[in-house]
Specification:
Length: about 110
């Protein structure tokens, strides 16, 4: 490299081989089960995020009651309103983001 050249820094990407919880307000028991369900679905349907989201939703609806909403993908942004103690935002398989929350089933 000559005196006038500037070395361009390459961005360093971090890939996690384990499930990484970025944010949650779920109770511990619910969080652990939701994270296990999400990781299993992401591994089983690695090429089909729609099927992974469907599996997660159906499993959480059965276990904790309806209506859960699920987003699975690699690059997205969102703004949501959720029921307290039902939000989970995590990463699994390196770069797969999973967002799970429960909406209010009845308005009073």
């Amino acid at each position: 490299m000559s005196a006038g050249e500037v070395k361009k820094e390459e961005p360093q990407f971090i890939f996690h081989t384990y499930a990484l919880c970025k944010f949650t307000d779920m109770p511990d028991e619910m969080k652990q089960e939701a994270m296990e369900t999400c990781s299993t679905a992401a591994e089983k349907y690695a090429e089909d995020y729609e099927q992974a989201a469907r599996m997660i939703k159906e499993s959480l609806d059965k276990r904790f009651g309806t209506p859960f909403q699920v987003i699975v993908g690699e690059s997205y942004a969102c703004a949501i309103t959720h029921q307290e103690n039902t939000l989970l935002y995590m990463f699994t398989g390196g770069n797969i983001a999973i967002l799970v929350w429960r909406t209010v089933s009845q308005y009073k």
